[in-house]
Amino acid sequence: MVKVKIPIVSQEDLDFFIASIPKNVDHYLNNDKGWAVSFLEDNGRKVRGYMEVEAVDLIYTSRNEQNENDANNAIALHKALSGKFDNAEMSAGAFWTFYALHHLEYLNRRSGLAKYKDKSAVEGEEDINSTSKAVNRIRTKYCVKWDPSMKELGDCLLPILYRVADLTYDPGREDPYELTRLAFKNSDIKLRITQTLAFFSKSVVVGILTYVYERNKAGYSVGSAEAQAICAHINAVSGNLRIDTMTSDEVYDLIVKFKEWYDKQK
User: What residue ranges do the domains of the chain occupy?
Assistant: First the structure.
């Protein structure tokens, strides 16, 4: 398993680093020590040491006991890309989220669905949606500069984490990331939701997770067979019911009606 070194610094130095990022990053990109460490040392700050972690644990693992970490990392990335990242929530294991702070200018739509021409695109970049472009920039320009092992993670996992958090973020709730945590809590639900994210609108995902949330509160579990059937049902009817224009409540009602029919087939 690939190990990644994460620098350990004081909170004071971390605050200094954060405040200085926009002006100084590009100057340090090609330094072998890593741009963050070089910048701190050049300004008389000390790196206290390094913490070695498994590279895969920084972002994602399929092991059930890591579901909470999946959710926390997805939430941290979503906050960073939305300009809402709280420094107090920073942890060594989520250090990579700093990279996201440099890419707000590439997010012309927070949903990440708008396609546009980017005259500043680097060689090899295609015309892709704004969130994918931001994720690519994080991966290729910063993660790989920090440590080549980060490329494997950025290739397939950053987009999934961001998409889950973006689709499940609900500002109307006391905890706007309540459904995000739920999406990662159950491995079966997580698998089904993430496998079909590309086809679901935000209202659909919120509807599915609200349904699961209510079932869990009532003491029932939603297993993989039911989750798979719900997803298949949503895909089958989406063309006729114009799901992209439905509210979360309408989607929720649709799922409940489907569940009633599904239970009768057993």
Answer: 186-266
Q: In whole angstroms, give the CA distance from residue 63 to residue 27.
A: 39
Q: What is the C-alpha to C-alpha distance for residues 151 and 78, in angstroms, rounded to an integer? A: 19
Burial class of residue 66 (count of CB atoms within 10 Å of its CB; 0-12, 13-18, 19+)? middle
The label of the residue with tokens 């990242």 reads: 85
pLDDT tens-place values along the chain, 266 residues long:
444 455 555 656 656 665 665 455 555 545 556 556 677 787 888 776 665 544 444 443 333 445 566 677 677 667 755 656 554 444 433 344 444 333 333 333 333 333 434 444 444 444 445 555 555 555 554 444 444 444 444 444 555 666 677 778 888 888 999 888 877 776 555 555 555 554 566 666 777 777 777 777 777 766 666 766 776 676 666 555 554 455 666 666 666 666 666 566 55
Q: Interior CA angle at 258 toward 255 and 263, to 5°?
A: 125
Query: For residue 61, how many C-alpha atoms fall within 13 Å in the half-sphere facing its CB?
Result: 12
Find all residues with CB under 8 Å of 43, minimum gap 6, and list them. Answer: 16, 20
Closest CA to 189 of 156, 141, 151, 222: 222
Q: What is the pTM of this model?
A: 0.46
Overall size of the chain counted in residues:
266
Element (H, E) at 49: strand 49-54
Q: Which of 115, 74, 117 is nearest to 97 (CA)?
A: 74
Give exposure, 6-30, as e/b (b: 16+ Cβ within 10 Å): bbebeeebbebbeeeeeeebeebee
